[in-house]
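Good morning N.,

You mentioned wanting to compare the apo and holo forms, so I went ahead and generated the holo version with nicotinamide-adenine-dinucleotide. This is what I fed in:
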Amino acid sequence: MKTLVTGGAGFIGTHLVERLLNDGNEVIVVDNFTLGKKENVDKFKNNKNYKFYMININNNEEFCEKLKNEKIDIVYHLAANSDIQKGGKNPEVDFRDTFMTTRGVLELMKKNNIKNLFFSSTSAIYGDEHDKLLTEDLGGLLPISYYGGAKFASENFISSYSYMNDFNTMIFRFPNVIGPNLTHGVIYDFSKKLLNNPNELEILGDGTQTKPYLYVLDLIDCIMLMSKEIKKGVNIYNVGVQTATSVTRIADIVCEELGYKNVVYKYTGGNIGWKGDVPKFQYDLTKIHSKGWKAKYNSDDAVRETVKSLKK
Ligand SMILES: NC(=O)c1ccc[n+]([C@@H]2O[C@H](COP(=O)([O-])OP(=O)(O)OC[C@H]3O[C@@H](n4cnc5c(N)ncnc54)[C@H](O)[C@@H]3O)[C@@H](O)[C@H]2O)c1
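and this is what came out, ligand included:
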């Protein structure tokens, strides 16, 4: 199969590209290195099935023009702004890199007659539903971050393009995804802060924010399994783990694994890390589990494995 991975130089993208190549697929990566890194994809450059284009996907004309001769079977659309706090300071960031990249992909698919799409959505589209169990068919969603809003708008545009152009689409709503080669997120931030000051750790909020953390290789297994199932219309799945880890617990695991002792935690206070942060959520995973996939790592183990990989 000939595949296109947008955002393929990023954290999740790199793992996906590796698996797709190992399984014998042709892979085209498009990225502009906003957050992804050239070093992440350099290791693929001698593979005859791999091709890279440095394109800003917001620039729809350049994107469509440069890829016009590529006969693509499926697009894995991962390009987005994944730095939610950066987006929180400037809504333009998520409009441009989270929403307009999706529009760019949909136009490319329409022009090049590409029929299959996999989209990386997020729990942020649900907004803050407090203790409500999040099912895929929950209605009246009100995202609270610009990032969540841009992803939800992307889902809606995907739905209409899929209907109008007979696309077969799968949307995965990821929770927090972690693992080797992280580019962002709480574990990444804690390790950086502790390198600068091994005695004290600033923790955003009161540390009780508690979310499910999914190990990236579990996610890649799920994407590969479900790619075979892409059907006409829009098929939405929550993907995650049933357990969750608090921010203070993450700090404990980071300190334990990296060997920092007697670290003083300084909480910034309040029950959220930043405005737009959803402090707690829980997915209903019945739909994805019924397909025969379950994460191998629970949330705490995923955190621990990730810290170990950082240490290496
Ligand atoms: N990691 C998570 O916890 C998580 C959770 C939910 C959803 N997601 C989604 O999964 C996808 C991958 O996330 P990730 O963690 O690998 O993030 P990442 O930042 O490591 O990867 C995103 C990639 O997109 C690229 N990109 C951004 N804007 C672009 C543009 N205009 N043109 C071309 N390339 C562009 C970046 O350079 C980066 O390589 C994203 O869509 C993200 O929103 C991630």
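The domain at 2-177+213-238 is CATH 3.40.50.720 (Rossmann fold).

Happy to go through it together on a call whenever suits you.

Best,
F.
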